[in-house]
């Protein structure tokens, strides 16, 4: 009886001293146009949490991943930040649109939470709308435009462009950035069509593509995402527009090629911040280990969405360990200007705008016959050009031009 009582007391003591989990929140599209990217965000985040917990957690405590479906809607993403905060999340990350990042990030700021944006490319995210509590892991329109502009200027100089864009924050931002980078600012010479931001009809897409076909443009740029992009690239294929023109999709993804199909996407040029081949190219041992772990878990290659979520969790955990705290202010100080190597070559969380400065790659979708010879039939991208992050990212002066009177993060 006495020994039994001692055992009960010892077990109770262990339970009392068991480390309480640290909750972090993933705000991601489980449904809607970006659900494939959302699945990758979840898989990348879970892999990071699993590895961190296997290594002892953060500050001696395990991580717990909370998640809510944003459905790629800014208002839902904003409400999710409230709910995740109420559930005890110490930081929130995710999103598939720039509008989500801006709205959710602003709400996180009011709650004292750090917000890490993924798949949010509009310059406004870390430009005009940037603040101290918002960090962006993905590249920006400016960065994508710079690497594309250099490649196209070198390989297809003095050609005419035609832009078809979604009339939203990201579409306008990307169009402006790419026009500057390629010298196609003259809208009389380099034409354009604007489509409604969400849910343009098939007839509207068709009219815009027919206008492009009737132009003298040698380069057709589709500045849209989600279902709108899918509809346009499929129609462009049906109209044989790629036979006479180079098709540009500024931000490519594994999910897009999978959904549209390799034949439809064959030869399309765009950008990626990361592909599964980048770690070997950059001699990143941790990156190659991530690719191997992802393949073992899911029997497919990881895409840039999975890599982004994985890197955010790992970087937040590393900052907490270096700061010895979960306090947002101390974490901001630990992250600002912190340089690191994880899944590729060196990256840095830049202090003045909280943009992740990293190498950006121009990529071309491989011929379908090559893709079909791959073991997973997913080796989609050939890297055709690389630009270092310091060259691709906007300068302090460029950034301050976007900020009106607020010349530093508040």
Topology:
Blueprint: H1 2-16, E1 22-28, H2 35-54, E2 63-69, H3 74-86, E3 91-94, H4 98-111, E4 114-117, E5 134-136, H5 141-155, E6 161-166, H6 169-182, E7 192-195, H7 202-214, E8 219-223, H8 226-238, E9 246-251, H9 254-260, H10 262-265, E10 269-272, H11 278-281, H12 285-298, H13 304-323, H14 328-335, E11 338-340, E12 347-349, E13 356-357, E14 360-365, H15 368-373, E15 381-387, H16 389-392, H17 396-401
Parallel strand pairs: 1-2, 1-3, 3-4, 4-5, 6-7, 6-8, 8-9, 9-10
Antiparallel strand pairs: 10-14, 11-12, 12-13, 14-15
What key phrases describe this protein's structure?
alpha/beta; Rossmann fold; seven-stranded mixed beta sheet; five-stranded parallel beta sheet; 17 helices; 15 strands; disordered N terminus
């Amino acid at each position: 009886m006495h020994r039994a009582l001692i055992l009960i007391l010892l077990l109770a003591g262990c339970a009392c001293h068991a480390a309480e989990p640290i909750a972090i929140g993933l705000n991601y599209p489980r449904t809607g146009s970006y659900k494939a990217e959302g699945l990758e965000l979840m898989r990348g985040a879970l892999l990071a949490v699993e590895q961190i917990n296997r290594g002892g957690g953060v500050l001696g405590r395990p991580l717990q991943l909370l998640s809510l479906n944003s459905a790629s809607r800014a208002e839902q993403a904003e409400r999710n930040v409230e709910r995740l905060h109420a559930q005890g999340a110490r930081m929130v990350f995710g999103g598939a649109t720039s509008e989500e990042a801006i709205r959710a990030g602003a709400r996180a700021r009011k709650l004292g939470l750090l917000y890490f944006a993924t798949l949010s490319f509009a310059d406004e995210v870390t430009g005009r709308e940037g603040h101290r509590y918002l960090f962006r892991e993905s590249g920006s329109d400016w960065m994508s435009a710079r690497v594309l502009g250099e490649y196209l200027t070198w390989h297809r100089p003095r050609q005419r462009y035609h832009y078809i864009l979604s009339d939203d924050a990201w579409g306008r931002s990307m169009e402006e950035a790419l026009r500057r980078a390629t010298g196609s600012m003259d809208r009389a010479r380099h034409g354009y069509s604007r489509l409604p931001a969400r849910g343009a009809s098939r007839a509207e897409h068709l009219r815009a593509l027919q206008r492009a076909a009737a132009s003298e443009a040698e380069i057709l740029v589709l500045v849209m995402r989600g279902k709108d992009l899918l509809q346009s690239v499929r129609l462009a294929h049906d109209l044989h527009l790629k036979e006479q023109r180079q098709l540009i999709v500024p931000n490519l993804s594994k999910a897009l090629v999978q959904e549209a199909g390799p034949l439809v996407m064959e030869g399309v040029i765009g950008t990626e911040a990361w592909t599964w081949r980048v770690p070997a190219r950059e001699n990143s041992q941790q990156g190659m280990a991530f690719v191997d772990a992802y393949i073992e878990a899911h029997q497919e290659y990881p895409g840039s969405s999975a890599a982004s979520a994985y890197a955010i969790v790992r970087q937040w955990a590393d900052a907490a360990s270096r700061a010895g705290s979960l306090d947002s202010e101390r974490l901001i100080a630990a992250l600002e200007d912190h340089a690191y190597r994880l899944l590729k070559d060196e990256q840095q969380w830049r202090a003045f705008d909280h943009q992740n400065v990293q190498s950006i790659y121009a990529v071309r979708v491989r011929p379908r016959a090559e893709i079909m010879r791959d073991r997973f039939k997913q080796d989609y991208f050939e890297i055709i050009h690389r630009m270092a992050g310091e060259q691709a990212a906007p300068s302090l002066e460029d950034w301050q031009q976007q900020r009106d009177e607020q010349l530093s993060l508040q």
